[in-house]
């Protein structure tokens, strides 16, 4: 696949340069959308979204004991890397939820739209299935060297987390703090909107007090 010329060659070269993975991890297999849309659990609306949003899915890399030469664990046996070519510059989260549901392994997504790229990953062991995404054209520096694949996965996810010190906290604390920051940030914005709309002075004072408390807590988490 690397010997091909044209646009596809450019994208293969681009993703290799960004990820810096050994060649024996390369799979580079086209995955038909019908592999996902033909499933019984897929409704018409989701099938339409697949067609409307996804141009092409390619299984780019397989990170496993046999390819990356790093020990697997019971929790993380393999990590797949999927390249998803989009028809629009918008990441279709419903499509990802279906892919993650049907494929038992962790997947690092490499999205591309025209000359733009982005990354994403799902924290599958979390009940809420938290998704992490990079900004468009943000070159994340993934570290694929570790004593086992669980730590490789944790290092990948850490690259998406910017609001917590990932060097001096254990992984679960990082995830929990990042989640709390997300919740607090949304609550603070909702309070600000409510304060703007509130006309009664006394209620504004109470809302401002709550806002200050949440902002203080957010500052401690960061």
From TrEMBL:
Against Pfam families, the record matches this protein to: DUF4391 (PF14335)
Name the InterPro entries for this protein. Answer: DUF4391
Q: Which UniProt keywords apply?
A: Coiled coil
What superkingdom heads the lineage?
Bacteria
The parts of the chain that form a coiled coil are 174-208
Could you tell me what this protein is called?
DUF4391 domain-containing protein
Q: Which organism is it from?
A: Candidatus Vampirococcus lugosii
């Amino acid at each position: 696949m690397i010997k091909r010329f044209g646009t596809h060659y450019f994208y293969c070269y681009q993703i290799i340069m960004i990820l810096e993975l050994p060649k024996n991890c390369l799979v580079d297999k086209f995955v038909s959308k019908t592999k996902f849309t033909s499933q019984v659990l897929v409704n018409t609306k989701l099938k339409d979204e697949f067609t409307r949003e996804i141009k092409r899915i390619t299984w780019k890399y397989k990170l496993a004991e046999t390819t990356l030469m790093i020990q697997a664990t019971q929790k993380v046996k393999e990590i797949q890397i999927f390249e998803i070519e989009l028809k629009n510059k918008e990441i279709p989260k419903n499509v990802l939820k279906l892919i993650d549901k049907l494929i038992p392994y962790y997947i690092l997504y490499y999205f591309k739209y025209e000359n733009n790229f982005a990354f994403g990953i799902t924290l599958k062991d979390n009940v809420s299935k938290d998704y992490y995404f990079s900004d468009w054209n943000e070159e994340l520096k993934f570290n694929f060297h570790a004593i086992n694949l669980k730590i490789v996965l944790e290092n990948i996810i850490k690259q998406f987390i910017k609001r917590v010190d990932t060097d001096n906290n254990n992984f679960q604390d990082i995830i929990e703090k990042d989640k709390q920051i997300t919740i607090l940030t949304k609550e603070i914005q909702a309070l600000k909107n409510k304060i703007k709309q509130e006309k009664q002075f006394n209620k504004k004072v109470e809302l401002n007090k709550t806002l200050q408390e949440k902002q203080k807590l957010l500052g401690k988490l960061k």
